[in-house]
Amino acid sequence: xxxxxxxxxxxxxxxxxxxxxxxxxxxxxxxxxxxxxxxxxxxxxxxxxxxxxxxxxxxxxxxxxxxxxxxxxxxxxxxxxxxxxxxxxxxxxxxxxxxxxxxxxxxxxxxxxxxxxxxxxxxxxxxxxxxxxxxxxxxxxxxxxxxxxxxxxxxxxxxxxxxxxxxxxxxxxxxxxxxxxxxxxxxxxxxxxxxxxxxxxxxxxxxxxxxxxxxxxxxxxxxxxxxxxxxxxxxxxxxxxxxxxxxxxxxxxxxxxxxxxxxxxxxxxxxxxxxxxxxxxxxxxxxxxxxxxxxxxxxxxxxxxxx
Length: 307
Prior knowledge:
By secondary structure, the protein is α/β, with parallel strands linked by helices. The protein has helices at residues 14-21, 24-27, 40-49, 114-123, 149-158, 169-178, 208-213, 215-234, 239-242, 249-262, 272-284, 294-297, and strands spanning 2-5, 33-36, 54-58, 72-77, 85-89, 106-109, 134-136, 164-167, 181-186, 202-207. The relative contact order is 0.20.
């Protein structure tokens, strides 16, 4: 079996990476291999086509390949709340929380990730066209088998190819430590419009077909994820073990501290309020034409395993 993530050198989908690398899928009787498929809509397309069995990705990206959520379900959350950061060039000297600093800037963001930034700006009263905000791809971010978006964005910022980026915690940390950038918005922790933290979240998804054909394997995957959360909370020092043969030394040196910082958000639960928030975001951005029912988005038969 294959579990795909859009970005390997990242904190965003780390519980899925750790579940593979620390052997927790194996403990549950599953032979699971990790694969990077970028950008996130391609993950969902691979899930739809059956070339992978699980996608560890952004919940709001499901309808990119499963229109109106028909044919896929979320098994559990990898972590809670929207997990991307807005980072701007350090020399701009923008203050924490100052969204207006994006005016006139070039901001790098990945496909389907960019909608989170677009909604955040709109909710903050920033008009992309009127205020001259140019949101687009990061040069070279999807070139090569080993390219990962957040780190690529940090390097592009340092090289002056962009003025800022909207990406994962690892990319943000690399930019800050290099002296190239400052974190302006961390919506998960309350920066920006209050509703922004609930736009989306990272989740483990699979297809309805897989659940029908392999219900016990789907259950085992949820149990493996729950175990991963528990073990990382008990010992964040396991995080570097999970990056072996994946992360370069620079990012391996950072991962334990970053995971320790994110542990409060490591919960597999998907509440009805969480889905309501997701629905508000999806409908506002035209990703779906109508809100999806909780039972149509979440594989509720496995929710008892979240505890």
